[in-house]
Specification:
The chain has about 280 residues and is of the alpha/beta class. It has 2 domains: about 210 residues, Rossmann fold (3-Layer(aba) Sandwich); about 60 residues, no CATH class. It is about 35% helix and about 30% strand. It has 11 helices and 13 strands. The strands form 3 sheets. A 6-stranded mixed sheet has the order 6-7-8-3-9-10, with helices on both faces. Helix 3 packs across helix 4 and helix 5 packs parallel to helix 6. The two termini are about 35 Å apart.
Length: about 280
Amino acid sequence: MIELKKLTKKYDEFTAVKELDLTIETGGFFGLLGPNGAGKSTTIGMLSTLFLPTEGEILIDGERLTRKNTVLKRKISVVTQEYSMRQDMTIEEVMEYQGRLYFVPKKERREKTQELLEFCDLMDYRKRTVRKLSGGMKRKLMVCRALLTEPEILLLDEPTAGMDALARRQMWNLLKRLNRNHLTILLTTHYMEEAEILCDRVGLMDRGRLQEVDSPRAMIERLGCYAVDQVSEEQTRSFFFQTQEEAIRYLSGRKDMASLRNTTLEDVFLEKVGKYLERH
């Protein structure tokens, strides 16, 4: 279990994360959502011990996480937004280097490498250099590398950024399979559809504060399960209703262009966090 208690990160006068309280159960799949600058990546940075909290603490299974606590740190692996692999290395060499870096015994790292590459559909490309991989394959390789040390927690900072639609779906399938194997996953993403499909719980961040935490389904139901989009030359406005009958009744009374659809997590995000963006 991950527990963040009053977690705060300040840079001089600027507060990137403020008094963040959050619990993620073992085996959970949690999405941290928010606009640019909300504090998502800073939170991931503190969980990976790249950044030290200014105040507050992080507990993993009840034990305080620090840079010196190597046993706890080995329970955590992180996949960053940036590709952090040598371009002239093959897939096999990337995995071999990672295994040696973390003192994984030779037999174990060879067996684990084969298992992970097969799991991620990369085995047939193991002799290919990183520079010749597609963006989606590079992301999958970064996940394989992160899993080589058999972590209990996987931190993903925008894992599908820059991927095409097909590669993104393949990554979603991979992450679902990993989570079904009881791996605890925390991800940040700007793709609301991604969070809605993958996460059992999400948190909305704004200006360094956690505004709301719940399941995507519960958030959508509170807003209203049905949306009517009213289109004009100036803008598109959405109106939300609890029942389909209410939505149809409203729609039938409109003379302008309008359409009925199911509400999504993106609607929740725009209604909650987007209101702040519109004011600034």
